[in-house]
Amino acid sequence: MNTLWRIIWREWKRIASLPAHYMVLLVLPPFIFFFFALIYENQHARDLPIAVWDQDHSTLSRKLTFMLEETPSIHISKQVHSSKELKTAIQDGSVWGGVHFPAKMEQQIKSNHPVTVSLFTNSAAIVPAKLVYKDAAKVIIMGGSGVVLQKFTKKGMDKEEAIALVQPIKLTTYPLYNPTFNYQKYLAPGLITVILQMMIIMVSVLLINYEYRTNSMGDLIKTGKGSALKIILGKTIAHLFIAWINFILIVGIIFPYFGLSNWETNGNFFILFTFLALACIGLGILVSVLFKDVMFATDVALFYTSPAFVFSGYTFPRWAMPWFDQVYAHAMPYTPFLQGFFKIYYMSLPLTYIYKELGILLIFITITFPAAILIFSRKIKKMTPVNAISL
């Protein structure tokens, strides 16, 4: 235990003294976490500028325009008079989309003739386009149904019968876990955790090979009494402690400050995060013992961790990716972490629901650490006289 503690204390001093360690683990995280959370400070995409092309100029078209303006996502900012003018406005970025009310729209609806109202959206921005579509479709369908309902009631039909005829099926939607489509609540936690995973791995790939760069490998072996197990275990505990500090920063400061806290899930989140941290440290140390060249090891870690957010399924379902991309996704610890994170953070499910994800992370841990210890132990034997140091 004394040997293990000396390694831990030695590693903490290296973290505090080496810029490659303290900048990535202690200085940058608060700024990066606040930066990502501040990007989505507005939380919702509201009042998106929309153009209206009204060829009907009727009471109905004016009423529908007013109803569109009252929706959360839409702000009528421009009136246009042709399809060319509407498309030009979308292309120059002055509006996000447009609505076209055709000529004689109200008259056609009252005559029981089908009418086509056209909705144009800038689908290069997927989420705003969907928000505009959702609100516009609701208003237009409601407005058209209202005209028909008014016509039936004027003819003496009972209102309930008229409603049943106009709208035979009622649809009630229940958006779960992020019902307000809050950008900050959805994207900020994912970006923060994926960046933290990258930071842990990027520093972990320096835990062994950087000792050569600083000419301190002999001191490390001496402190650890030549035991690869004690050296790797001590360094792991030291960096796990730093990962816990960043966890406290996230759940104790960042999330509460931006209103993202889900206090009842913090215990389960801590367990899941610890498994992720250990998996990342294990991967980093394995790379560190495999490649003595620091720059090459860093490049390998950067290549491995950079696509984690894309391949994790956070913004696009993994099952829709090509099979080789799915294989790559499952080769990263962030993928099972994300699956478990959704369950415990957004859905507030108990720990029993993420046993599978914890099991996958445990596989990463049980493969990387023994492999790293075995490889490093052989390297220590080559660096020291036979039987000079007890392994």
Largest sheet: 4 strands, mixed
Distance separating the two termini: 16 Å
> Can you count the beta strands?
4
Overall geometry: elongated
Number of domains: 2
Summing up helix and strand content along with how strands pair, one would put the structural category as: mainly alpha
What Rg, in angstroms, do the CA atoms define? 29 Å
Order of helices and strands: HHEHEHEHEHHHHHHHHHHHH
Percentage of residues in strands: 5-15%
Low-confidence stretches are 386-391
Polypeptide structure, described:
- By secondary structure, the protein is mainly α.
- It folds into two domains: 242 residues; 119 residues, abc type-2 transporter like fold (3-Layer(aba) Sandwich).
- The protein contains 17 helices and four strands.
- Strands 2-1-3-4 form a four-stranded mixed beta sheet, sandwiched between helices.
- Helix 2 runs antiparallel to helix 8.
- The longest helix is centred in the middle third of the chain and has 30 residues.
- The C terminus is likely disordered.
